[in-house]
Amino acid sequence: MDARALKEGIIPGRLDAEDLNEGFKDLHAPLTEHEAFVAADRCYFCHDAPCITACPTEIDIPLFIRQIATDTPEAAAKTILTQNILGGMCARVCPTETLCEEACVREAAEGEPVQIGRLQRHATDTLMAQGVHPFSRAAPTGKTVAVVGAGPAGLACAHRLAMNGHDVVVFDARPKAGGLNEYGIAAYKTTEDFAAREVDWLLQIGGIEIRNEIALGRDVEMADLQADHDAVFLGMGLGGVNSLSTPGEEKTGVLDAVNFIADLRQTADLATLPVGRDVVVIGGGMTAVDAAVQSKLLGALNVTLVYRRGRDRMNASVWEQDLAAAKGVRIITNASPVAVHGNGMVREIEFEFTDDSLEPTGETFRLAADQVFKAIGQTLIGDNLPDLEGRKIAVTGPGRTSVPGVWAGGDCAVGGDDLTVSAVAEGRDAAEDIHAALTRA
Predict the structure, then answer these.
(1) 277 contacts: CB under 8 Å, gap ≥ 6
(2) How far apart are the first and last CA of the chain?
């Protein structure tokens, strides 16, 4: 570690360019052609494949792996993309270790599954490198659909609607399309500006217009969308961040993890991004792990992730937890924050241990901290929305809301589980239902 990493305070440039490049390189290198053949050869091509059921988008995994094995990766890519138009990103960021690969027969028999995620990336990368878009639009229907949110759910919905001949206008609050894929995923999981390149590739279908920096409720109202379009799909995700609700939370240095990750993803030179010497991340999901690991990769000396429940209750997979530990992140469980200490700027954060039912034990401890990241969940922001169930939009069937002509999917809707692949499935299925409703005689 560079000697500057010993400096106090939140500063940029703790590591030199070589260390930063090494830390933020592609987490999983792409398979070579030979490696892909070897990996594909391990598949049993099960007739009743459990990996298909385990995939939220129900990709025919044995078929696409067989297509790779027979040296037709472009055909494999179309098999994947027919079900999951963001299959390239999902191959990079999906927790395959708890989805398709956990269900793999090889995993059950040998403890080593077929490398489904890496094979999926091999196929989709091969096709995208050719600049080929394998789908075309149906005859125009004369119908227009408004999609709110250019994240995975919105993009999947827009693409399927465009394929079916509808014209789509996508409204997104941020300067760039991509949503979670562009702003919310660790940089080492999706390198070389892949999220933006995938969006550009997806838009080759035609019939989709993206209008950036237009937020629902700020720049456009629900009533206007309903009046100007034949249907509306809400896929704007969750824009708010939950509060710690502890004394001292307002101190300088207490930040939202989602904003930290977004800033990191949009920073051209990582050496200009400030990071603390002693970083504490509060939360147990993927965002918490991504914030913790990237803080360490930026040169933070001490990084501690604290979660209120046990490790078996963390939303981050065991694989992700192990990755954090391997990068030098300390994980403390069964502890909740009770106070942030410091004179204007955070210096320590105090926690109290909890039992399995989250009841406080009375035993407290403090961690030195000059930077604290909150990763304790996000909340839905917006007025005049369809009926809510809890803190998300209530839906039935393939995304139908309480308002006729309005559908919803992804993290903003009930059932969303913060996974890119699930959001894609919900956007795709809502699009098919919208299409059926718009073309019904």
Answers:
(1) 5, 6, 7, 8, 9, 10, 300, 301, 302, 370
(2) 67
In CATH terms, 144-239+380-439 corresponds, of 3.50.50.60, 3.40.50.1820, 3.60.9.10, 3.10.580.10, to 3.50.50.60
pTM, entire model: 0.95
pLDDT in tens, 153-199: 999 999 999 999 999 999 999 999 999 999 999 999 999 999 999 99
pLDDT digits (tens, 9 = 90+) for 290-327: 999 999 999 999 999 999 999 999 999 999 999 999 99
The pairing of beta strand 208-212 with beta strand 378-379: unpaired
Residue ranges matching CATH 1.10.1060.10 in the chain: 33-129
The number of residues making up the chain comes to 441
Q: CATH fold of 33-129, please? A: Fumarate Reductase Iron-sulfur Protein; Chain B, domain 2 (1.10.1060)
Cα 385 off chain centre by: 24
Q: What letters, b where the CB count within 10 A reaches 16 and e where it falls short, cover 366-384?
A: ebebbbbbbbbebebbbee
